[in-house]
Amino acid sequence: MRRLLAMSRYEITTPMIAVVDTSFLRTGLRNHLKNGQAPHSLVAIQSEAINAFIEGETLREMFRKIPKFAKQFRVTELELKEFFLAEWLPSIKVIELPLVLRELDERSLAVRDRDEDDFAAASLAALLSPCILLTHDLDFEALGVSRWEQGIFAICLVEDVNDGNAGLQAAVMIPAAPVFALGVVTKKAYDRFGPVALGVAGLAVAGVALLYLKQPPDRRNTIKSGAAKASRTLLEIYGEAVAALEHAKRELRQNLVPPPEDMLPVSAILRALAITPTSLSAQQLHDELESTFSFDVHELRAYLHGYKEMMFFEERRGGFRLGIPFEVWLNGQFEES
Predict the structure, then answer these.
(1) Is residue 214's pLDDT more than 60?
(2) 19: part of which helix (H) or strand (E)?
(3) What's phi and psi for 77, nearest 5 deg?
(4) Where is average pLDDT lowest: 187-196, 222-231, 264-273?
(5) Above 60 in pLDDT, residue 126?
(6) φ, ψ of residue 325 in degrees (nearest 5)
(7) pLDDT for res 162
(8) Other CB atoms within 10 A of residue 53 CB
(9) Is the pLDDT at 173 greater than 70, yes or no?
């Protein structure tokens, strides 16, 4: 029951968080090379509707498998590696999880028992959940993966949710459109003719009201009937937009890695930094999370600096985001390994 309540409460974040697995990368690269254009999933990631992350061990596994994949794709190892570096990795941030964090969620331990190679990706997905797990590997069943195309389907649903939000905003704006149009016209007239334009606009509104009052009773009833019908139509449009949006959100939730029964403090930190449009300082992160968790700002700042260039990237002085740009990762930890 607690899990059902948790799943019914969690909100769909914008942008959506996604964790990438090697099986997804293999399929995506193959289709990219075969079709000569980026697959839909990569386009969605590049559009920033989805923030994609990969665990460092998963990425090292991917590089180890490039010779095998190159042979399967009938290209050279160098060609595939350069293609991967140029076309895919710029849109994916790297996170090196300490072992103590990998073992926090029992679901990731269940995945490790099935396939140890999937442990790193499972741990990252568990900590960032609810999120999309981009994989075609059913060994992630403990994280809710039941179909090989589930992650791709979730990406399409993210776009449906975004379209639904746009449709809802458009429906809300429809009744205000005439008023907004009058405001735009009045503003332009004011810029050109000065305060007299405001008087003209006021007279126009008063004129419409006076014109209505001068109509015979039957004509007024016709006008009111037409207005009522228009209102009903607007309500129907709004209702349809709400229903479509809620349906897309419901479908999306069913295709995500579900959240844990109890959110861990570290998960709250990671998720907050994963979806922020700008970097956050320790104080800003503290203010963002204070309604849910009680963090000491000094300890939070020490934590961010302690895992800098492993999990957190200092984009500006004292300002952090989740994940390391691949160039930084390649020039550091990967070369050392």
Answers:
(1) no
(2) strand 16-20
(3) -60, -40
(4) 187-196
(5) yes
(6) -55, 140
(7) 81
(8) 24
(9) no
Place of tokens 């029964």: 261
Give the angle subtended at the CA of 267 by the CAs of 262 and 273, to the nearest 5°: 145
The average pLDDT across 128-132 equals 96
Tell me how far apart the alpha carbons of residues 311 and 235 are, in angstroms, rounded to a whole number: 47
CATH topology assigned to domain 2-145+257-262+325-336: Rossmann fold (3.40.50)
Q: How far is CA 126 from CA 291, 293, 306, 311, 331, in A?
A: 22, 19, 22, 15, 28
What tokens does 60 get? 């090292």
Per residue in 239-263, pLDDT (tens digit) is 777 788 888 889 999 999 999 988 8
C-alpha distances out from residue 77 to 56, 68, 72, 182, 229, Å: 21, 9, 11, 63, 66
Task: Note the pTM of the prediction, 2 decimals.
Answer: 0.79
Residue 138, token pair as written in the block:
């059913």
Tell me the DSSP string of 241-272. HHHHHHHHHHHHHTTSBPPPSS--HHHHHHHH
E-assigned strands of 63-209? 92-95, 132-134
The first and second tokens of residue 321, run together, are: 């985001």
Sign of the CA dihedral with 2 first, then 290, 103, and 114 last = positive
Angle at 105 between CA 121 and CA 248, to 5 degrees: 70
φ/ψ bin of 318: left (φ > 0), alpha (ψ from -120 to 50), beta (otherwise)? left
| Lowest-confidence segment of 13-27, 96-110, 149-163, 176-190 by average pLDDT | 176-190
Q: Which residue has the tokens 């890695």?
A: 257
% the chain with pLDDT above 70? 74
Instruction: Show the tokens assigned to 195.
Output: 């305060």
Domain ranges of the chain: 2-145+257-262+325-336, 165-253
Burial class (CB in 10 A: 0-12, 13-18, 19+), 314: middle
